[in-house]
Amino acid sequence: MRAAVTNDTGRLEVRDVPDPDLRPGNVRVRVAACGICGSDLHMVESGIVPPGSIMGHEAAGIVESVGEGVASLAPGDHVAIDPFDPCGTCANCVAGAEQRCVNNVYTTLGLGFRAGAYAELVEIGEGMAVKVPDAADLGDVAVAEPLAVALHGYRRSRFEAGMSVGVVGCGPIGLSTIALARFLGASNVWATDTNEFRLDLARTLGADAKASDADVVFDCAGAKGTVDLAVAATRMGGKTVILAVNLKGDSTFPFVWVTREVDMFPSLGYTLDEYAECAGWISSGAIDVKPIVTRRVSLEETDEAFFGLLDGAPQGKVLITP
Question: Taking a C-beta distance cutoff of 8 angstroms, is the pair 27, 66 a contact?
Fold first, then answer.
């Protein structure tokens, strides 16, 4: 198969590599679409992805073959791919918090230890596949991953219909947070970003310009100063949710946290149930994610698209379509 593989200089080059193994209990999926995630960009920028890695964890595709013992899937099934494969035995998994599995960095698709979906084929566990209707746009379905990240943040914050929402940063996570705000019954939603193109996407999804502090504010930017910016935009006694990944470090001003008495909710990933909910909402048409997807590229265009995003190219979600 062909795959976009990290080379010694950190770039992504398309290579012919062996098809993934098909072990008992697993399925091999032909990838229809895989999103370029902000965390992928951060990992490459930070130099923590080993050469020879196949990244990609926001994917959907069609089951090509099934391994011994697989009962719920068959060749031809259309699936959304939950990239997490929790071990099921660590204390967090046993407690029902599989998103905090201590082995996730090793078992999750595309983080440098397990081959991801910047490729024509990917091997996943049976439990990582969520079946969707054949008529669903698999490119849209791949957006279930960032949508699930946003949903987990809403659940962490104990959001209720009628609350107001603020979003700091209108990348794919921020745009997904806005799409969910309307769907979950927010009274209003505002968004901020330094990029006018992304603000236009936010407005398309129903966001307004910031007018007042919100009940729940999401940091979806992960840039220097954005946590404090989100706290300062949260009403006193409200909730601030940290969704974005910041691998560069930051300094904060806790005095503002204290004087505003906000509840802070760092949010990590999502559960399989949350991912399945999002895949279902997208495939049924209950949530329209098409405005979030602004470009689809071939496998050969992966490097150009990837480093274009690192250079600040104005895009929403970019999908690789092997």
Answer: yes
Q: Which residues pair with 14 in a beta bridge?
A: 4
Question: Distances in Å between the alpha carbon of 307 and those of 12, 41, 45, 118, 172?
Answer: 9, 8, 10, 15, 16
CA proximity to 70, closest of 30, 20, 123, 120: 123
Of 238, 223, 178, the closest CA to residue 205 belongs to 178
Pairwise CA distance, residues 295 & 293, whole Å: 6
The domain over range 2-143+292-320 is classified in CATH as 3.90.180.10:
yes
CATH of the domain spanning 146-266: 3.40.50.720
pLDDT tens, 60-97?
999 999 999 999 999 999 999 999 999 999 999 999 99
User: What does the alpha-carbon distance between residue 172 and residue 77 come to, in Å, rounded to a whole number?
Assistant: 27
